[in-house]
Design goal:
The complex is a heterodimer.
Chain A: E1 2-3, H1 4-21, H2 24-50, H3 57-74, H4 79-101, H5 106-126, H6 149-174, H7 177-184, H8 189-194, H9 199-225, H10 235-249, H11 255-278, H12 284-299, H13 305-309, E2 312-313, E3 340-349, E4 352-362, E5 367-371, H14 378-385, E6 393-398, E7 401-402, H15 408-413, E8 416-418, H16 431-436, H17 447-451, H18 456-472, H19 488-500, E9 506-510, H20 518-533, E10 537-541, H21 545-549, E11 554-559, E12 562-567, H22 569-573, H23 576-583
Parallel strand pairs in A: 1-2, 5-10, 5-11, 8-9, 9-10
Antiparallel strand pairs in A: 3-4, 3-6, 6-7, 11-12
Chain B: H1 3-34, H2 41-56, H3 63-82, H4 88-114, H5 119-130, H6 133-142, H7 150-172, E1 186-189, E2 192-195, H8 196-218, H9 220-230, H10 232-237, H11 242-264, H12 275-288, H13 294-314, H14 319-325, H15 327-337
Antiparallel strand pairs in B: 1-2
Helix pairs in contact in B: 1-8, 1-9, 1-11, 1-12, 1-13, 2-5, 2-7, 2-11, 2-12, 3-4, 3-6, 4-5, 5-11, 6-11, 8-9, 12-13, 13-14
Classes of the chains: A alpha/beta, B mainly alpha.
Chain lengths: 588, 347
């Protein structure tokens, strides 16, 4: 095992040495790998982390390159104005594409960017003002001549400084408040929304960021080789960028460099070797490249990077030792109204009525149990309260305010937090990071602040709050382990801790005790009682009757989408309709 | 531009549009059964088109070798999967489908390249050379990954595209090809010359569209096919053999693609690498139908053909650019009309 800092410094030193001493041809190759890495890291962020993908990154590179080429070579502006134009054009195009595509499922972005990339490629090739297929020659050099001396070694170093800086920035972003939300996009969009994350805007942001990086790569490229033509910005290059991200390891930021290096070297090797073996009649290099990538996708879907990452020891996330730093809880409402009121709430799925004319209310500071046989509509009711689903009819009020159809994020902002029937955690993130997602709304720092490390103080607070809740549910030992490695019952506790972090006034727990051992159940019950004593109201769906009966103040019994009965546990136990429909012999 | 030019452009656009419609339908078919957004669909078109053109010239298309190779690979995959269980029936079936059948088709192609055959027979052989590639590609590329995400399946599609287009150059060379129309005659209708070839295109397009409609909307099996895309596990539990469904969808897509190729190569010059741009036109049509609606995709693809025809009249050099950039307003429209799609989980 190597420490990460050691690996990073060794890598940089080796790279610098390479740039200084290798023959001129390889300097060029290393420069290209740097330019490619800058683009590929964006695809790692999109494909591997956020679960969306783009088949049009080469087009953004093209926009960056053409913007500066047109301004500097044709109009005689300075390269620095060119830089601004490159970033503006590529960034705005990505922003617009993202804005219109991310309301649709992820694969629309893939198709959209591919079509858009093709269109742009044909446009560059047929636009006479931009030189058509010949492109634009005579793109001026940057004003520092020394960059180009000695086979452009200094320029190559400049490219790598930019690429490494960007990758480090992305790494920092992913380790921040918004970064955790980005990492949740792939598996838990709904969960992220329920903690106040605007997943749509977050995707637009990261897509724009990758567009900017690609545009920057284009600017560096244009002033490096001195001319631009449409070829390197076509669909094949877009696909190769994607291959770089996939081969390197789509979940690992540094995998972009690994992938860019591997694909670039592989292509050179194949283009050298294959014509000698098979003749030059076919494009055998892309055949082999395609076959290799298919094999990687079939057999080693995470690419090369995980294999390297296992050899590098990542430092643990530091947790500030202060135990508290709890989030301030909202003061209870002054009015005498119930905390939560459901009136005639109905939800239909086609012909099926999952929740039918359901009315109940709960008071401030009580634990209300929602029970009923499987399929009675309990989880649907949860989803209606938290706006995961829209009501077909009826109203939901929280402290007197209607909250049906205000959206998941608004519900979160009102101080309502929840857990899910089917555990929604991000398996690859540690328990601490998962729980810290709950603190999303209590921070305000964005991606730029994270990249510049201006978010450290806030971040420490969020992590401290998360750690405090992890201790509270008794998972301190597991804090730094990947949440996916925990037993199901413990994953449920992670969800409970995550829901506690934002200091909710109303906590909705969907089967929190399922999968817990007896002792763990007792601990959970006493935790919930303590929370009640602190003034937290809890709505609980649970099948374990011992657990429920000894804990709740009141019960609502549902059956086939309707309210069957409500009352104290004692009343419910003796209610004949409930015994008939649900408790059966158990209550006798 | 007067009405007669507009009519000519529209007729021309509808002929191309009918072909794009077939492609769009094939793409929706594959997507709705297997969740694969099959980017290499255009390669089937190119293989069908250039195979047909070569057979007419009395040459043996190189795709014969691709068919035999993929058949052998598929057989190896099947044998490897069946070996631990020693299932003789599986082995026999895979040998028949992946070794004997391709050999028979290859032999027919070889004969057709040695002796002059009527164009209709050449067309049939050209299509037959492509159809088995569909199930084979599904078996080798997609079946081992049937549960992967839509994005992963799409990227696998791109690797298939790389493999096919790289081989395509080897088989057909860099020169484009054209073929004589299958139907030579035509007639004049109100000042508009309607070629026999375009009538053939319309007839084939209508027949395929009707067939798919009957399959998916009127037959139990078609509904079962769609069920596999929604929930593979559920479909399996209900007794639907999802992999058979996948192979069938890919086989149909390959057949439709090859037929499009045969029709297209007498309308326009087809190059070894035309596939992506052709397939993408089908995709734009399919996106208009939100990737799931057969009628929507059909209407969308016809519109793509019409737009292409009009743009190329006014500003021919920007034809492709305009066509592909059309995706922006289409996506904008879709995202405005389906605001609820935000919360949808990716998988």
């Amino acid at each position: 095992m190597i420490q990460r800092r050691t690996a990073f410094c060794t890598g940089l030193a080796a790279l610098a040495l390479c740039i200084a001493i290798v023959p001129a041809f390889y300097v060029n190759l290393i420069a290209y790998i740097g330019l490619y890495s800058l683009v590929a890291v964006g695809l790692v962020l999109l494909t591997g982390v956020a679960g969306v993908t783009s088949f049009g990154q080469a087009a953004f590179v093209g926009i960056g390159a053409y913007a500066t080429a047109a301004l500097t070579a044709l109009l005689g502006w300075s390269p620095w104005m060119g830089l601004l134009a490159s970033l503006a054009f590529s960034g705005v195009s990505a922003l617009v594409l993202g804005l219109i595509t991310f309301r649709l499922s992820g694969h629309y972005l893939a198709l959209g960017t591919m079509s858009w990339g093709l269109g742009l490629y044909y446009m560059m090739g047929n636009f006479e003002a931009l030189g058509g297929h010949t492109g634009i020659a005579g793109v001026p050099r940057l004003p520092w001549q020394w960059l180009y001396a000695h086979a452009g070694r200094a320029y190559c170093a400049l490219i790598w400084v930019v690429a490494v800086a960007f990758i480090v920035a992305v790494e920092r972003m992913l380790a921040s408040r918004k970064g955790r939300a980005i990492r949740a996009l792939k598996t838990g969009q709904q969960m992220a929304e329920s903690f106040g994350v605007n997943t749509y805007w977050l995707k637009v942001q990261i897509f724009t960021l990758t567009g900017l990086a690609a545009g920057l790569s284009g600017w560096l490229y244009a002033h490096y080789i001195g001319f631009v033509n449409p070829t390197p910005f076509g669909i094949y290059f877009s696909i190769e960028y994607l291959f770089m991200a996939v081969l390197g390891g789509a979940g690992y930021v540094w995998g972009a460099v690994v992938g860019a290096t591997a694909i670039t070297l592989l292509r050179h090797l194949l283009q050298d070797l294959l014509p000698k073996v098979l003749g030059s009649a076919g494009n055998f290099d892309i055949v082999v490249l395609g076959a290799i990538l298919m094999f990687v996708l079939h057999r080693a879907r995470n690419g090369i990077a995980p294999w390297l990452a296992r050899r590098i020891h990542a430092p643990r996330l530091a947790v500030p030792s202060r135990l508290s730093r709890l989030m301030p809880r909202r003061p209870p409402g002054a009015s005498g109204r119930p905390l939560l009121e459901l009136e005639h709430v109905t939800r239909r799925f086609g012909g099926l009525v999952a929740v039918n004319d359901l009315s109940f209310s709960m008071q401030e500071g009580e634990i209300l149990g929602l029970i009923g046989p499987n399929g009675a509509g309990k989880s649907t009711t949860f989803n209606l309260i938290t706006n995961v689903l829209a009501t077909s009819a009826g109203s939901v009020r929280y402290r007197g305010r209607r909250i049906d159809s205000i959206g998941m994020r608004a519900v979160a902002r009102m101080g309502i937090a929840r857990t899910f029937q089917h555990v929604q955690i991000v398996p690859g993130m540690t328990v601490l990071e998962n729980v810290a997602l709950g603190a999303y709304l209590h921070g305000g720092k964005g991606l730029a602040a994270a990249a510049l490390r201006l978010d450290r103080a806030e971040e420490a607070g969020l992590l401290a709050a998360a750690a405090a809740q992890i201790r509270r549910v008794g998972l301190e030992e597991k804090m730094h382990e990947p949440a996916g490695s925990l037993a199901l019952g413990q994953q449920r506790l992670v969800e409970v801790a995550r829901a506690l972090v934002p200091a909710p006034s109303l906590l909705l727990l969907d089967e929190p005790a399922a999968g817990l051992r007896h002792l763990e159940k007792q601990q959970l019950a006493s935790l919930l009682k303590n929370l009640r004593a602190e003034g937290v109201s809890i709505l609980l769906v649970e099948h374990d009757m011992d657990f429920v009966m000894n804990l709740v103040d009141n019960l609502v019994v549902m059956s086939f989408g309707q309210k069957l009965a409500c009352g104290t546990p004692r009343e419910i136990r003796s209610n004949p309709a409930v015994i008939e429909a649900y408790l059966g012999g158990e209550a006798a | 531009m007067d009405a007669s030019i507009a009519a000519i452009l529209l007729q021309d656009g509808l002929t191309n549009g009918a072909i794009y419609m077939l492609l769009a339908l094939a793409l929706v078919l594959v997507f709705s059964v297997t969740r694969v957004l099959f980017l290499p669909q255009g390669e089937f078109v190119v293989f069908g088109a250039l195979g047909f053109a070569l057979l007419l010239k009395g040459q043996l298309p190189g795709t014969v070798w691709l068919l035999l190779t993929f058949g052998a690979m598929t057989a190896v995959f099947d044998v490897a999967a069946a070996a631990p269980r020693r299932r003789a029936a599986v082995l026999l079936r895979t040998a028949a489908l992946n070794l004997a059948l391709p050999s028979a088709i290859a032999a027919a192609a070889w004969l057709a390249s040695r002796h002059p055959v009527p164009p209709s027979l050449a067309a049939l052989i050209a299509v037959a050379l492509v159809v088995p590639l569909g199930p084979m590609i599904y078996r080798i590329g997609f079946m081992p990954m049937a549960h992967a995400s839509i994005l992963t399946l799409m990227i696998i599609g791109v690797t298939v595209h790389f493999i096919l287009v790289g081989m395509s150059l080897f088989f057909f060379g860099p020169e484009g090809m054209r073929a004589e129309p299958l139907v030579g005659a035509g007639f004049v209708f109100g000042g508009l010359i309607i070629s026999g070839q375009s009538l053939l295109v319309y007839a084939v397009a209508a027949a395929v569209a009707a067939g798919l409609y009957l399959l998916f909307e009127r037959s139990v099996y078609g509904k079962a096919l769609r069920a596999t895309a929604v929930n593979r596990t559920g479909a399996r539990l209900a007794g639907i053999r999802t992999h058979v469904a996948g192979k069938l969808a890919f086989g149909l897509a390959a057949a439709i693609g090859a037929v499009c190729g045969v029709l297209m190569v007498s309308l326009t010059t087809v190059y070894y690498d035309s596939g992506l741009a052709i397939g993408m036109r089908g995709f734009i049509g399919a996106v208009i139908g939100a990737l799931v609606s057969f009628p929507g995709a059909a209407a969308g693809a016809l519109a793509v053909g019409a737009v292409e025809s009009f743009v190329s009249f006014f500003y021919s050099s920007m034809k492709d650019a305009a066509l592909f950039l059309l995706i922006i307003p289409i996506l904008l429209y879709l995202s405005m009309s389906r605001p609820g799609a935000v919360a949808g989980e990716e998988e």
